[in-house]
Design brief:
The protein is an all-alpha fold. Helices cover 89% and strands 0% of the residues. The protein is rod-shaped, with a radius of gyration of 41 Å. Belongs to the VTI1 family.
């Protein structure tokens, strides 16, 4: 399996396109056909899949710094396009949620009530309409805050992944250095063994020479004494 940054980016990009295509299909078709709790459950599943898509984008960002400079700009453009596609799906999800909230809000209004009439029942409907609008605005603000927090979390996650990649590279460099040091120690040990062997060999030769000289001296002395 190719674990190069380019190959990993391609895999993440393919997964992201598949995820966004499924999400778009669900938001434009399946989710709109559902109602009530079933629609809420479907929106929850879409949100979870959207979180997965955001994580995939973060992984793509992590791979960019490790790519060769000559091709990095091309992949940066592809990443920007993927982010734009992700934002469009987020906007679609936000629109569907707002539509769902409006449907739930107006579902409780009787058809015979005019929200702008002056009679008491009309005033009650107008009041409920204003309250519902306020709740809808609050819900939109919460969604915006959640979106902002998600983006901040995404940035933090990308930084963590980059730090982990840097630490992994440091560990790999340390491992390579230790391997080289081990090889150097083995070579040094072999050289020392050869030096020790030659030292003993020289001592043995020197001792033999000394023994021969002593023997020759003894022979000469003996010949002189008995000659």
């Amino acid at each position: 399996m190719d674990n190069s940054p380019t190959a990993l980016f391609e895999n993440y990009d393919e997964d992201l396109k598949h995820l966004l295509s499924n999400l778009k299909s669900k938001l434009e078709g399946d989710v709109k056909l559902l109602k009530g709790e079933e629609r809420k459950a479907a929106l929850k599943r879409v949100t979870e899949e959207l979180d997965e898509a955001q994580e995939t984008v973060a992984q793509m960002e992590v791979e960019l710094p490790s790519m060769p400079v000559s091709i990095r700009q091309v992949y940066q453009g592809r990443l920007a396009t993927s982010k734009q596609a992700l934002e469009k799906v987020k906007k679609s999800l936000k629109d569907v949620r707002q539509e769902n909230q409006r449907n739930e809000l107006f579902a409780g209004f009787p058809d015979r009530d005019d929200p702008y009439t002056d009679d008491p029942s009309g005033f009650s409907s107008r009041t409920r309409l204003l309250q519902g609008t306020e709740r809808l605005a609050d819900g939109s603000k919460r969604l915006d805050n959640a979106h902002r927090i998600a983006l901040e979390t995404e940035d933090v996650g990308a930084d963590i992944l980059r730090n982990l990649r840097g630490q992994r590279e440091q560990l790999e460099n340390t491992r390579d250095s230790l391997t080289q040091a081990d090889s150097s120690i083995d070579r040094a040990a072999g050289t020392l063994k050869k030096m020790i062997f030659k030292m003993y060999q020289q001592k043995f030769v020197t001792g033999g020479i000394i023994a021969i000289l002593v023997l020759l001296i003894i022979i000469v002395l003996w010949s002189k004494i008995h000659g």
